[in-house]
Amino acid sequence: MVVCPKPFALLKCFSRIRIMSEVVLTTLPDGRLALVKNGKQIPVEARRCFPWSEPEQFFSLRDEDGNEAGFVKSLAELEGASRAALADALAVAGFVFRIARIVKVEEELELRAWEVETAQGARRFQTARDEWPRDIPGDGFLVRDVAGDLFWIPPMDELDAKSREILWALVD
Length: 172
Fold this sequence. Notes:
Strand 3 and strand 4 form a beta hairpin. 15% of the residues lie in helices and 41% in strands. The chain folds into two domains: 7-93, no CATH class; 96-168, no CATH class. The protein has 172 residues and is α+β, with helices and mostly antiparallel strands. It is built from three helices and eleven strands, in the order αβββββαββββββα.
């Protein structure tokens, strides 16, 4: 697996990534996504890579041990059934709440309790106290709650004053 130094450096890393010439994906009877490789179905989890500004490009296919089993450069390069299988898997696993406003964040024992307004409505969630919003250079912040859900926070200059004040205390 190739690790790129910065999210937006992904394009420069393509020369070091072995991209499969033909990726065939299917959905297993239990609903999981599978990569068909050498006639064998390998259960995989699709993970969107950066930049998030290109939602139909750059997907890492990870096996059950978290190792990269394949890479999809673009949904458009997949044939119909494979494209549909990947799109369905991403819709189920890749939902990200988009925070519009941070109402409050309170410290509780080993957790942080967040109260936010999202594009989907008011939400409350908890994060571990050592789970900090991750900076996505030029594209805001990302935080994962204790249930594994992802919340995207826009860049500071797009937030209201109160949200900026709350977020500022949680980021470097």
